[in-house]
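[User] I have long wanted to understand how a fold can be written as tokens. Those tokens are not coordinates but codes from a learned vocabulary of shapes. Could you go through the record with me and say what the backbone is doing? Thank you; the sequence and its tokens follow:
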Amino acid sequence: MELEKLLEISPGITAVIGGGGKTTLLRVLGEELAEKGHSVLLCTTTKIFPFYGLPLVTEPGENALRAAGDGSRLICAGTPEPETGKLTAPSLPMGRLTALFDYVLVEADGSAHCPLKAHAPHEPVIPPEAGQTLCVVGASCFGRPIREAAHRPELYAKLAEAELDMPVTPELVARVLERENLHDRVFINQAELAPTEAARLVSLLKCSAAAGALKEGVRIC
């Protein structure tokens, strides 16, 4: 199944939060939408590295974005942070970006490369204009202790009512997702690593959810 249909992605702004494959999801979904003829912008409200091989717009204003969009249906935009090489949010307001592109896919969270994420009060940075928020969970979390699998592990353990050394289970992840309640949908990535646990998590969630493997050509598990 196509990722767009699987995740019920609609035009406008989609915010992507969580851990375990946010950046990969933006790239794969963006390429899929662009191949269908849509104009797509990849950006962030936090910090990301530029997407390799994609046109990058760092100049403020609409003209540069329009020019890049005329040459490619899929582009990346942001404000450079010279000391890290990363990009922060584009200079244009999100509301203006939706007038220039069919789809705006926004990485709205950071997870320090962990498959799970617990959110501090100032997180995630979801644009008010976002029509939907998708939370990514990395299935590499299952069986590992919370202290190794989660970004902000103490907070994650508190939400889960668990100890830091307790192994991560589908029930534990579902409990944290439900208590944070920051998402509209959930995608369990890396499902090839733990297909039984990924399927179990899908069954436990009350929202729309799916499991798959983005690095295996969007294989759905």
About this structure: The two ends are 11 Å apart (CA to CA). The chain has a mean pLDDT of 94. The chain has one domain: 3-220.
